[in-house]
Amino acid sequence: DCQGGEVIFSDDFESGDLTDGGWTISGNSQIHEQAAFTGVYGVKLQKKGALLEKDLSKFGRTSVVVEYDRVTVNLEENDDSLEVEWYDGTNWHLIESIADTSWGHASFELSPRAGNNSEFRIRFTLNCNHPIEKAYLDNVVITD
């Protein structure tokens, strides 16, 4: 479902291994069958501190579009969230903060500062307080 740009990075997690996609993980972040939106595998982020991060050099790109499928489970809407952010080399910038209980497809064209950025990163963080709270993520695609 790309918007016509060149695919810079994509991961549908079907390899069954986060290291294949070059992800940095913290906390309880893992490939899981229950987390799949399409295919067999997706990523499950569970418990406070669960984090999935990807370092991508965007040097020479004019724009950056980030797309992914996501859903949250058992989050308290006003207190908990799945936060998606991008890094400009100095600061993290919020793309979205959600607690949706139905699968949804997200697509965001980032600030022009995301392009031509050799330190561009994206991360998905679960902010919650209870062990039963989790988020599922699938089909991450980054285009320019």
Structure description:
The structure is a single chain. The protein starts with 6 loop residues before the first strand and ends with a strand. The chain contains no helices and nine strands. With about 140 residues, it is an all-beta fold. The protein has strands at about 5-10, 25-30, 40-55, 65-75, 80-85, 90-100, 105-110, 120-125, 135-144. Strand 5 and strand 6 form a beta hairpin. The protein is globular, with a radius of gyration of 14 Å. About 0% of the residues lie in helices and about 50% in strands. Strands 1, 2, 3, 4, 5, 6, 7, 8 and 9 form a nine-stranded antiparallel beta sheet that branches.
Q: End-to-end distance, in Å? A: 13 Å
**SS summary, helix count:** 0
Helix content: under 10%
Low-pLDDT regions:
none
Which structural class fits the helix and strand makeup? mainly beta
In total, the number of strands is 9
Order of secondary-structure elements:
EEEEEEEEE
The Rg value, from CA coordinates, equals 14 Å
Major sheet: 9 strands, antiparallel
**Average predicted local confidence, pLDDT:** 91
Summarize the structure.
This protein has 144 residues and is mainly β. The chain has no helices and nine strands. Strands 1, 2, 3, 4, 5, 6, 7, 8 and 9 form a nine-stranded antiparallel beta sheet that branches.
